[in-house]
Amino acid sequence: MSTKRKTVAVHAGAQLTGSKSQPVVPPIHVSAVSFFDNSDELDAALDGKDYVYSRIAAPNAALLEEAVAALEGAEACVAYASGMAALRAVFDVLNLKQGDVVVMPADGYGVTRSLFKNLAARTGARVEALILSDASAPERIVALRPKLVLAESVTNPLLRVPDIRALSRACREVGAALAVDATFPSPYGQRACELGADYSIQSTTKWLNGHSDALGGTVSGSREKMAALRAARLLGGDVLGPFEAWLTLRGVRTLPVRMKAHCEHALHVAKRLSESPLVARVHYPGLPEHPDHAVARQVLEGGFGGMVAFDIKGAGRPDCFRFLEKVKLARAAPSLGDVCTLVMHAASASARRMTPEERQAAGIGESLIRVSVGLEDPDDIADDLLAAVAEAMQR
Length: 395
Hints:
Belongs to the trans-sulfuration enzymes family. Keywords: Aminotransferase, Pyridoxal phosphate, Transferase. It comes from Archangium minus. This protein is α/β, with parallel strands linked by helices. It is built from 15 helices and twelve strands. A seven-stranded mixed β-sheet has the order 1-7-6-5-4-2-3, sandwiched between helices. It is globular.
């Protein structure tokens, strides 16, 4: 089959291995347990060679894993019940111990940082937060000699873009595992494993699903690394349910078409916002003035993503809350990747689990609004955002 993303998205994960049946739309397999007339076949199924118990393996999750692995350009994929479960699985499988160092983005998703700080405290590992888009980041990684580096392809919520290839070279030099949360660009915008990541992580709740109706997460990488994750998942039980897997695979089918439009709309909205005197700064890697624009052009494909962030000039938290109440087309919701435009106040949502000091060090101020740009007419989106800013800042 073709490896081109549009073709892969439509056809990968369509047929279960060993079956000659070829349904156009995969059925939903809701049975948690199956039986066999032949004891040898049952015995083999308990080793994962067939479907017998959905904690070991399940048909709908297997089809999704096949599709995501193909989109990621990876050898294999493991699906989880949420993106956070996927992130935790990567941390746990590395068996970190007292004194080990974990590097993660200082300006990344606050819940991930909180999770890793808690997990590290239990193991005795130490978390070091760096701005991984800084040119000095690879050198800092070499000096720290970590066991794990977690990067975000595009950081949440400031949309900084690290050079994954440079981070990968630094990780290889010191024997560190490189995990990349590539949720923001999706596999349409970046294949992190092809840039040198050991693990590419997706919150499938977002762009892959695309309709805000199913939680999920995936980790993609080599067969060897995914086998270790799969073995751990069997014991941990954080499996993806059949309905969630089916809905997400349905979303995957239109991923390239949707992402192309999301990227085009986001660029248009970013340009419109940058022209407003009420907007202090627009964060979008597709704008030439973005500090990582040159890197983004090299490590992102098919566009610069569907996320935009902007600072309302002179706004504090109450002003931003009024903005959330004034939008009419967009919806104030703490997620992203939907066909409709979603907005949120970054400091009280994505960075909510960060301390004020951590937010300040990251550059996440009280005036920052994050936008997941939808598929509505882009001028309608921009008009709605700008009108809401104007109303919110009326004194």
